[in-house]
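agent> fetching stored inputs for the fe (ii) ion docking request
agent> found them:
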Amino acid sequence: MVLFVDDELGVLSSLRRLFAREPYLVSLVSSGKEALKLLATLEEVAVIISDQRMPEMGGTEFLTLSRELAPDAVRMLITGYSDFQATIDAMNSGGATRYISKPWDDNELLQSVRDAVEEYARKKAAKAELSLLQERLELQRQNQEEKLRLQTAELERQLLEAQQDVQHQQGSYRMLIGALAGLIDLRVPTSRRHAANTSFLAVAVATALDLPPHETEDIQMAALLHDIGKNALSDDVLDAPPESMTETQLSLYRAHSVIGQSMIETVADLKPIGRLVRHHHECFDGSGFPDGLAGSAIPLGAAIVCLANAVDTEMGFQAGLAAIEKVLVKLAGRVGTEFDPELFQYISAPALKLYGN
Ligand SMILES: [Fe+2]
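agent> prediction call returned; pasting tokens
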């Protein structure tokens, strides 16, 4: 649709004739007011051509007001040569992009309007393409967000599953170790208390050494299970005090750490704990069993369990500050032969805490 606004009816008639054969609708109105009313009812106007000199509302004012009603239309002003200022105003505030000088040449006017119609069509197509692109971009963004959301949800699910697995496994191990530790109690009634005390002291030393949590946990388990192999010993070996054992009884007794390891290692994941149990009777100077390891060759966790085990064994059924102080003095005499001097300094505090009250 092309809209002409001119107050002279003669001009409107000639325009109607001139544009009769053009392939678009033409509307002709005689005032700016009327044109604005019409524009308010139209959905699409490609070109608006207004005369400048009209009573009531001039061309510039009309074009300016028309911008709100038909923002995309191409605007043209028809004006005489003398209306230079009006032309400038129409371009600035009225959004006019072309102007036609009066009197006009028919062919030039036809061509100008055709160009304007084309310009409008181009602008409209570009705008449609732009909004299509924006829509696609938005869709793509939403798809990516959805994809990302799904990926994040999947990762979170996997993480939760893994955490539950770990918790479940840890729970199973704890139950298993608790059950294993209970076994030895059937043979040696005081062993549960001994295992608990050894475990308390060993964890305290590991904590003082700032060992990583998984190592501390292994040490705790090894301390609980260190004598599990005694289950396999016969009553006469189990009941005999070490100092009065026969050679055969002694070698059977010494086998308890290796037997303990093989019992624990029936569960593949408990292998590191089995290794600590194997070496819990190694001595710092290499005089221990089963492998006669010395110094740093002894796994740290095993040396810690060895020390904790010795403290609770020496304490036996005693309790109180005096008893533990006496035991610590006695054990200090075995530092360097049986115990690692580096470790011994960490045992006093937890030992005093455990037995001192
Ligand atoms: Fe032992």
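agent> quick read of the result: The chain has a mean pLDDT of 88.
agent> awaiting further instructions
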